[in-house]
Every structure is written in C-alpha cells, then in structure tokens.
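Figure 6 in text form: structure in, sequence out.
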C-alpha cells in the first residue's frame, strides 16, 4: 500500500506522552478518492487505511520502515465518517521485543468515542 500521509491524512500535531507512548492528531482529507468507493452515499474510513495510518505514524516516530507481522486483536468499535469526524486522535504505546519485533497497542478516537483498538506486532526492516 502506498503511503497515505499527506494525501489521505495530514498530521496536525504529534507528541511523546511517555517513554514509549505517542499521541498524534490527524486531519482526514474528506475529499479523498477512497471515499468515492467506500461508500459514495455514506463515506467511512476503511479499516485497512486505519491500520496503515498506525503503521506510518509508528514508522515516523521510530525512524524505521516497518512490516506488519500480526494483528492479534483488532476491534472496529465505531465508524469514522469523515465529514463528521475529520479530526482523529491516535494514541500508541510500543515495546521493542527480541529480533526487531515491536509490539504495539493503539487506539483511534475523538473525544469520548473510540473508533478502533489495535494490538499487534511489526518488524523493523
């Protein structure tokens, strides 16, 4: 998948809130072509795009290219409807394991609504 950053979404702000924890605020491009097919009458952010954003933000934070290894627990608990939710917070906690494996716990949310919870692993390339 091609990078979504600076096309599908842009970073409004990013901060380190703990030793291995980040909080990033992104702005979704509500006019992106992806929404023409997903879905024209009620556009929602595809789950695969949400997972790609997590990967790209972690790559930026770590300064390394990553390969997704596992998605051990992925829960889509609410739909992200771009015209209603153009601003999304992405909170991530990561832990470096053996052999370049990075364990990640991430959450996409805005105010009191959590849209996605992700627990999985990535490998540095």
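Output sequence:
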């Amino acid at each position: 998948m091609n990078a979504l950053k600076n096309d599908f979404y842009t970073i409004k702000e990013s901060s380190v809130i703990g030793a291995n924890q980040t909080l990033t605020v992104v702005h979704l491009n509500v006019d992106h072509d992806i929404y023409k097919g997903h879905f024209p009458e009620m556009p929602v952010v595809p789950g695969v795009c949400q997972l790609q954003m997590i990967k790209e933000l972690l790559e930026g934070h770590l300064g390394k290219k990553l390969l997704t290894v596992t998605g051990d627990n992925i829960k889509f608990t609410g739909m992200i409807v771009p015209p209603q939710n153009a601003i999304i917070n992405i909170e991530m906690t990561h832990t470096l394991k053996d052999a370049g494996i990075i364990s990640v716990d991430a959450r996409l949310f805005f105010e009191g609504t959590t849209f996605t919870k992700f627990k999985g692993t990535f490998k540095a390339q």
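Caption detail: The chain has a mean pLDDT of 95.
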